[in-house]
Amino acid sequence: MTEAQKTLPKWILIVSGFFAILELVVSVSLCITPQSALDNVDLTAKGVNFLVYMLAARQFALGVIFGYATLKKSIPMLTITYIFFLVLVVGEFFIGIKQNENSMMIAASVMTFICAAMIFAINKKR
Length: 126
Hints:
Blueprint: H1 3-6, H2 10-32, H3 34-37, H4 48-72, H5 75-99, H6 102-124
């Protein structure tokens, strides 16, 4: 590969950096004010705080992975990260179907499209 083939366009790095920041903000938000993101969950029930912190840890890990892959400008790392994110949002789509939550299904559908487009765009440069 030539050096020109190895570089990623700036817009891909910007979008990936945005996702990294977004995931980190969601993680912090879940830890500080979980009721803002989980409005239909009884946060006083036994064991719910544990699940909220597990979700926050997942979001934090995804943000760190996105950030690291973006800073490294690594095509394989970004590809794997977007594949993981794609699997995650497809799972959220099916959870939305099971819960009959239209907003979750719509958001997951949009994110599925964005992830698939990003995987295509990243690997088109190979």
